[in-house]
């Protein structure tokens, strides 16, 4: 990096730290003129733009960065945040998972933050689907009720009906409509009835829902990011205090799959 | 908020939610208005005459690295809450327990499990005495509990 670009970048960092994102963003832009194509300057500016909610600009900065540095974890992490803000859930999750893989590979300290980002993507994707499902169900119910009312009115308008027969028709339709509403009500209740989060899906260190469980030789599984935090302080098994290194951890693939499947249906469990 | 503090805040919020609904017998949550300091009451449930019909108040102080680092746990003295007599509990409420030390702590421990360990530490005790040198210790000690290098000379007590 040229001395000029370096100086502008550091000035930008200072403004960013102080919470002045607008000035920081301008300084990173100037630095990029002095040193075009510098990947770190792109991710720094993306970070400032994230704070300013300039989602589209974040995305273009990150994409530029990735052209020069395809291994930029930060670019994928910021892309995930911007796409999530734009409600592009699949894109957001895809980038979060890529950033996650990179963190694991490089033992990056951002693992905890990226883990939460991945879980947030899953949760919001579920919430969006859930909202849509509810909306569809309630508009369907509305339509069906209207149809039944039309049928009933037609039957009531039939020629030559006695008052007593009319009464019967009315009661018959009222009964049918009540049953129909009951069916919709039941399905709503089933959705709303939030099951308890199963203990097997909860990490005993963070108490969070597990995203990437790893297992130790005791047979107990933990969230990878929590284990990393713990092992940084003490190279011991949390249960037995026997020596344990990061290399000893194994992914618990079956548990991960069970957690993923549970989240598909129960995105709320991320914030249990 | 630094990332570790966020980690601590999340875990504490969930831990609180869990114990608000459900605590084992003899353990009561008294106050947890913020995420730095909680108070709980414990009772010894068997008929150990040393602790019968008494309730003890515990104070938990959490740092920003909880649960990677242990909380600071002490007994608090109030008019109706004495400091339990025990060879590992100083009369100022400081507890000498392996589990709460830098070496013995594990992040899978939690408020509930610490309370249960203290309950069983009292349950199993038959000695009506304070740690050796209690008076001098209480008078002289200016260290925070976590900075005291206890000598766990007898883990059977």
Describe the structure.
The complex is a heterodimer of chains A (272) and B (157). Chain A has helices spanning 3-17, 21-34, 39-51, 55-68, 73-85, 89-106, 111-156, 163-192, 224-233, 253-265; strands at residues 213-215, 221-223, 250-251. Chain A is mostly helical and 272 residues long. The radius of gyration of chain A is 28 Å and the shape is flat. Chain B is an alpha+beta fold and 157 residues long. Chain B has one domain: Roll (Ubiquitin Conjugating Enzyme). In chain B, 25% of the residues lie in helices and 14% in strands. Chain B has 3 helices and 4 strands, in the order H-E-E-E-E-H-H. Chain B has a 4-stranded antiparallel sheet. The mean pLDDT of chain B is 88. The chains are: A mainly alpha (272), B alpha+beta (157). The A-B interface holds A 112-113, 204-208, 226, 229-230, 232-233, 236, 238-239, 241, 272 and B 3-4, 7, 10-11, 14-15, 18, 67-69, 104, 106-108. Chain B: Residues 7-157 form the UBC core domain. Chain B: Pfam families: UQ_con.
Kindly state the number of beta strands of chain A: 3
Please report the total strand number of chain B as a whole number: 4
Overall pLDDT metric of chain A: 93
Distance between the termini of chain A: 46 Å
CATH architecture level-2 label of chain B: Roll
Q: How can the largest sheet of chain A be summarized?
A: 3 strands, antiparallel
Query: Element order, helices and strands of chain B?
Result: HEEEEHH
Shape of chain B: globular
Name the poorly predicted regions of chain B. Answer: none
- Would you identify the CATH H-level superfamily of chain B? Ubiquitin Conjugating Enzyme
What is the CA-atom radius of gyration of chain A, in angstroms? Answer: 28 Å
């Amino acid at each position: 990096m040229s001395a000029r670009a370096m100086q502008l970048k550091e000035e930008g960092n200072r403004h960013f730290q102080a919470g002045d994102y607008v000035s920081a963003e301008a300084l990173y832009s100037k630095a990029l003129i002095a040193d075009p194509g510098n990947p770190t300057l792109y991710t720094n500016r993306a970070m400032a733009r994230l704070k300013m909610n300039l989602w589209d600009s974040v995305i273009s900065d990150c994409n530029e960065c990735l052209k020069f540095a395809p291994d930029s974890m930060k670019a994928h992490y910021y892309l995930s945040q911007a796409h999530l803000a734009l409600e592009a859930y699949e894109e957001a999750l895809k980038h979060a998972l890529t950033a996650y893989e990179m963190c694991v590979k490089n033992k990056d300290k951002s693992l905890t933050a990226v883990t939460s980002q991945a879980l947030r993507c899953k949760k919001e994707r579920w919430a969006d689907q859930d909202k849509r499902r509810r909306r569809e169900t309630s508009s369907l119910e509305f339509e069906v009720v209207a149809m039944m009312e039309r049928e009933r009115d037609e039957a009531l308008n039939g020629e030559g009906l006695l008052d007593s027969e009319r009464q019967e028709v009315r009661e018959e339709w009222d009964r049918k409509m009540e049953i129909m509403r009951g069916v919709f009500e039941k399905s709503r209740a089933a959705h709303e009835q939030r099951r308890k989060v199963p203990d097997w899906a909860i990490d005993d260190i963070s108490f969070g829902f597990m995203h990437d469980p790893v297992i130790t030789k005791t047979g107990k599984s933990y969230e990878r990011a929590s284990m990393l935090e713990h092992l940084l302080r003490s190279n011991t098994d949390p249960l037995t205090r026997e020596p344990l290194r990061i290399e000893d951890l194994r992914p618990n693939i079956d548990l991960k799959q069970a957690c993923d499947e549970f989240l598909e249906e129960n995105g709320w469990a991320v914030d249990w | 908020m630094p990332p570790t503090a966020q980690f601590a805040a999340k875990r504490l919020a969930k831990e609180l939610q869990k114990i608000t609904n459900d605590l084992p017998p003899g353990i009561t949550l008294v106050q947890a208005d913020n995420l730095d300091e909680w108070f709980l009451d414990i009772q010894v449930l068997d008929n150990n005459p040393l602790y019968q019909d008494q309730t003890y108040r515990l104070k938990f102080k959490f740092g920003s690295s909880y649960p990677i680092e242990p909380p600071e746990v002490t007994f608090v003295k109030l008019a109706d809450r004495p400091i339990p007599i025990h060879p590992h509990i100083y009369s100022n409420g400081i507890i000498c327990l392996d589990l709460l030390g830098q070496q013995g702590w594990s992040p899978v421990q939690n408020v509930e499990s610490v309370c249960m360990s203290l309950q069983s530490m009292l349950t199993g005790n038959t000695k009506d005495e304070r740690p050796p040198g209690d008076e001098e210790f209480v008078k002289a000690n200016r260290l925070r509990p976590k900075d005291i290098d206890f000598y766990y000379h007898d883990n059977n007590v």
